[in-house]
Predict the 3D structure of the following.
Amino acid sequence: MQRMNKYVSSILTVLVLLGTAGGTSLQASPSYTPSPGYTAESSYASPAGTLAGFDFDTSGNLYLFRGNSIVKRAPGGSETDLYTFSSDVYGSFLKVKDSTVYFGESSNGSIKSVSTGGGTVTDLGSLGSNYDLAFNSSGQAFIVANPGWAGTKIYNLDLVNGTTDEIADIGGYSGPLAFDTSGNLYYGKGSEIISFTGSQVNSALGTGTLGETDWSVFATGLDSIGYFAFDSAGDLFSSSYTGAVTETNNLGSSNPFGSGTSPSTLRFVPGSGDFETGNPDGGHLYVNTTDWFAGQSTIFEVTPVPEPATVILLAGGLFSFLFRRKQ
């Protein structure tokens, strides 16, 4: 929370100064411009309030941490409130695993869960300034937090009894974490991505704490990393509150993947084949963008566009069909 608050505070100050100087309104809808070879369309726009996180289940239902509420939105657009906090909170994450929604907020540090079908909300405990949660390939939960602002740590979270076990001491401000299919852990540490092997993570469970001498630097040259998402080929996408979305391949080489209005939470929904230009069936990357001045969030769906030859063939087929109908 602390890094986001500092960023939001500074950017709003700049916007106010610019608006005062120019005498114009600064409110505008959030936007996202993808890299060449991809298209971006608005998938969901929050009617009021910003989004602290979102995720999908396997049936295509969208789950939103919208304002102070956890909301389930069906593909047809109908919504169900799963939980609403009794007071204003600063949401930190929302993740769906199997048939359960996990969510946290950093105002009070609470971590909770609720069934995707609704019902009783389970209190999983508290970690001050929690930021992100991820699952490894074994289904174990790990959470990033900065209790007492004494430096960021990564914990293993027991989803049954809510107990936590510190496995890594990272220091500094909080960042995102993600696991690849081999169980390796990746963490966004400001301008670089660091990693721990799955073996290191397993060895730290209940026995010790990993630190700087244990991690490897996977990628450098990024800026204020906000959140992560892996695609089906193992490429790691990262967002930055400064506006960039970056793609880092499995060799640690990074390239721009578009830009938008304060992009944050990322989610990848796999399709058929790789998420590459020319394969429109290769899945979708969803990007949450937020206009903090207007207090509005929009989720964009990023999709590869077909190869030019494919477009020509489709257009030719349509022309032939229309010509035959005209005859």
